[in-house]
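S1.2 Input.
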Amino acid sequence: MTVTWEELGWERLADGVGRCRLPGWDCTAGLVLGAGGALMVDAGSSLAEGARLHEAARRLAGHRVTHLALTHPHFDHVFGAAAFEGAEVYGAYGAAGTGALFAPGGQGREALRADAVAEGLDARAAREAADALAPVAHEVAGECVPDLGGGRRVRLADVGPGHTSHDLAVLVPGSPAVVFCGDLVEESGEPQAGPDAVPSGWPAALDRLLDLGGDDALYVPGHGAVVDAAFVRAQRDALAVRFGVSR
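S1.3 Output.
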């Protein structure tokens, strides 16, 4: 039986492209459907949340998720990754380095687990997710273009550093084009700059996002409502002032 995005609580953004806003941290997960493949953008904050995302994707696509793009290495975006068994996992260049995927500052999965618990995730769920994490198999240096079948190709671009040292964006060409920004862009609150942020590079990372999507794209923040290019430019300018970055 065919289901719609809306029936599953997802927001349809374009043909074969949608996203949902997850409870707890208002984190976005995205999905891009192809004829023979499906790409999930980020994996949720726990194994249970990842499993729910994967089940929704199966119902929408008619098959399992074949590709998983992790926009950056924070628990609310990666802790569900093990639920996507068999998927090709992508991250920005350097994300597969020693400990880099698993914690702010590259301190290992234990630090990532501790951060999750400090932010309110159940301690057992945090331990299970941290223990189950597998490293990124495909580091994106520059760009790569996975083929999801039926002419559906997506562009994965290493646009950071900014929010972290390893920020990956996902462009889905079309009318409109859709750009999944990770936490380089946030709408529901001020962008968060933790110990692994690279403030000096953040405004330039947003310039790269704008170059990737153009003026007419839909920009999907890591947290909050979908925005346009004007919002991204305004946030870029505000971050430049906030961090004292000359332009």
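S1.4 Remarks. Residues 102-106 have pLDDT under 50 and may be disordered.
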